[in-house]
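Sat 14:20. Reprocessing the chain from the morning session after the first attempt stalled halfway. Input below, unchanged.
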Amino acid sequence: MDIDIQAFAGADPILAIAEEVFTAMIDGEPGHVLPALSAPELGDPMHAWVDVQGTTSGRVLLSTERATADDLARALLGMEPDEEVSTEDFVDALGEVANVVGGNVKALVPDPGVLTLPQVTQERPPTQDGSQIYELNLDWRGRAVVISLWKLP
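Finished this time. Tokens:
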């Protein structure tokens, strides 16, 4: 995946995508997702990703804690704050967020090819050492969300 983040004149296009996705899909208003100052340690991590398969292939990976993912699902699905999130709703919601972020990232890639269906698991998908090309640590309402981009073989 060939994205030159520095080519965007000081603006981080992945941060802009995250802000737009969270505003439109989750919060309904801007200002609830911000860059985090440091990389978080995720307890009970959950991961959702899509792959961009084309001339150069890459992965857009969204990682967060299970409780945060449940809250994202509640917000996305218009559920009550204490409403139980089913496994199906959880997978659908977190996968949809990864899919929309991935689709927007795909638009930044020259000759991007196809976007795969989202995958959601507790285990982080395998990646090769040195294949990470970008990481964005976010604070969503005081909770950690990480978006990373990876080159695939």
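The beta strands are 33-35, 45-53, 58-65, 114-115, 119-121, 132-140, 143-151.
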